[in-house]
Amino acid sequence: MDQRCETTNRAIYVDLDGTLIKGDLLWESLFQALRRKPFVVFLIFGWLRHGIAFTKARLAEAAEIDVKTLPYRSDVVERLKTEKAAGRRLVLATGSNETLADAVAEHLAIFDEVLASDETTNLTAHRKLDRIRDRIGDEGFDYYGNSHHDVCLFEEASEATVVAPDRVAHNWQRKTGAERIDATESEVKAALQAMRPHQWLKNALIFVPAVLAHEIFVGSVFVSSLLAFIAFSLTASAIYVVNDLLDLEADRRHRTKCNRPFASGRLSVPNGLLLAAGSIVIAFTISAFLPLAFTGILVLYLFITTAYSVAIKRMLLLDVFVLAGLYTVRVLAGGAAADIEYSFWLLAFSVFFFLSLALVKRFTELQQVGEVASREVTGRGYRHVDLEPISQAGMTSGFAAVLVLALYIQSPVIEEAYAIPQLIWLLCPLVLYIIMRIWILARRGEMHEDPIVFILKDWRSQFMIGCGAVLFLIAAAW
């Protein structure tokens, strides 16, 4: 009976980053601040001269994080609610800035007190322990934590609970046998999801120049195209990671994107940055074995996609033009890697065709969000009332692509390359079918948010592409 009363009276101190939530508010504040105010990147080094505590305070101001959307560990929160109901005193003790810590405590409404960093003191490790000792003296306390910074608190606590620990905290927990609450999913699996390998299908456009030049089965051409495909895929994955980090808050408000690895907290920001950096290094190592022109295009692609992630994707119309251009850049990269010249007609067709698909992507995103769609909700420059003009522009652009294709088929180039150029005319209705079907499904709300991936997975579209390939083969072989 005495032991039960002693336990009930003992306060529970709970860490925030990595323990109460699945992320780290310092890293989240950094990327949220960069998303809202990109010029912050030039201020950070000046802030760091005043110390990490001062930097945390400035980032918290610039980021304006909505704590309601943070990825809380539901098992930890439910356990704390049970302890609160049993009469335990709960204290949020964190190295995060006091502004964010107070907001979290107010949102959860289970904490009796908040201990957090201010502009002058970074409340971690021994500084946190000293602050707790100042509050309770020689009384015992329980502690929930997750990292190497918490080991000194684990050792002083009457009861320690180790939550999803890092390597140092993991070793301490194994040695002492302290209670442990594990993460529900491996970060390796989350990292693979963050790389979005299914999106690599879009990079199949790199093979288009070699296919149209009838050289895809030439050994050196195929190997060069394959290496280019791998390099572009890894670069794209790195950009997807950075894009997700910049879109954390918007993704958490989205019906499906909230399940992405970073938005859900299944993958930490530091590990994501390592993943992106490693992908870039491997991609450019591969590019060293390809023509210099390809490396130049890869650098251009990296620059444009970074600019797109940081700012352009929130700009009305400019975002879809850049998206269409990025698809076309893949075609250019394929030609450069295999040292194949690409025609004006191919580039013109690509611009109109992929502009139509980029508009499908925006149309679908707006449709999923519904009438509440706005810059604040979606992180884009569109509103729900824009659905109709987006649809009209997208279908018109698709028809323009077919018109360019028809003019190309009638050009002398086709007559020289194929004995029966009339067969190539059948490509026009095949492309029309693909474009019109995509837009009809989009209007019905049945379209995958990325139309390129949809085309490469949809059996009807695959059938039309296969028919087109057969037409090319017959016309060339005849």
Automatic annotation (TrEMBL):
Keywords: Cell membrane, Membrane, Transmembrane, Transmembrane helix. The keyword Cell membrane applies. SUPFAM superfamilies: HAD-like. It is found in: Membrane. It is a multi-pass membrane protein. InterPro entries: HAD-like_sf, HAD_sf, Prenyltransferase, UbiA_prenyltransferase, UbiA_sf. It comes from the Bacteria. The chain crosses the membrane at residues 229-246, 292-311, 316-336, 342-360, 390-410, 422-440. This is UbiA family prenyltransferase.
